[in-house]
Amino acid sequence: MNQVICIKWGEKYSGDYVNRLQRMLERQTTAPFQLHCFTDSAEGIFPEVKVHPLPELGCEIPKTVPGKFPKIALWRKDLPVPAGPALFIDLDTVLVGNIDCYFEVGDPQDVYLAKNWAKPFMGLGQTSVFRFPVGGHSYILENLQANTVELAEKYRYEQHYVTRNVHPKVKFWPNKWTRHYRLHCLGIWWLRYIRKPRLPRGARIITFPGFPDPVDAIKGRMEADLPAGLSRVEQVKHAMGLKREQTQTKKEWRKQRWRQLRQYTPKADWLMKHWDVL
């Protein structure tokens, strides 16, 4: 049975996000699977999902470090998931094709990451989707516990830390499998005024690092605090119509309007059939 893991902490995501992942897995996998959710609140989560308490990180990450280092707790020896390869999937991820290949590629002891497409020439991984052997690389957590401040400040992001410290080396999924929504589906900002978001050929998983998340992408906005579903003309009018606040300099005001122009995104209608599966 294939093992899949997700984490839900805090109030950003409800139990419905876990349930959507469960339903997407049912549609996009062939072999039997078990979804494990590590969370501080099991409210509303389907009974077929195995719920576990959040694993202890065992150290305190400096508040100035932006990365999501609590995910490193998954590398512990005694994680309550059957031994063998497990696939971690972030809750703001959309499965758009069959993902059996994510379990089949390479050796079971290999660590596979999605490529960090925002920094394509640095050889870095992105941990929205990664596969690892449960308990097989516990030194990742143990080294962080022993040198917390030094390592956290050096790498800043847990995915950078994982990429550079797994031995012998991490591997990456084939390029077409795992795609970054903002970079591969939207493209550069001016292209969004010409075409709608597209589903890249051969994609199996779409990741949503940063913004937007799937809900905002479906509604046609880059972030939750921006207007949704605007046409191209409406977006331009909205951006150019922003009034200068008394506390703003002219430079800040112009920068805000420019940001609004660059934040335009049409609705991704095709996402709905993959995401809205409850």
Report on this structure.
30% of the residues lie in helices and 17% in strands. It is built from ten helices and ten strands. The protein has a seven-stranded mixed beta sheet, with helices on both faces. A three-stranded mixed beta sheet has the order 5-10-9. 37% of the residues are buried.
Portion of residues within helices:
25-40%
Q: What's the CATH H-level superfamily name of the largest domain?
A: Spore Coat Polysaccharide Biosynthesis Protein SpsA, Chain A
What is the straight-line distance between the termini?
A: 23 Å
Number of helices: 10
> What is the level-2 CATH architecture name of the largest domain?
Alpha-Beta Complex
Average predicted confidence as pLDDT: 94
* Low-confidence spans: none
Q: What's the number of domains?
A: 2
Shape: globular
Number of extended strands: 10
From the 3D structure, determine the CATH topology of the largest domain: Spore Coat Polysaccharide Biosynthesis Protein SpsA, Chain A
Radius of gyration: 20 Å
Broad CATH class of the largest domain: Alpha Beta
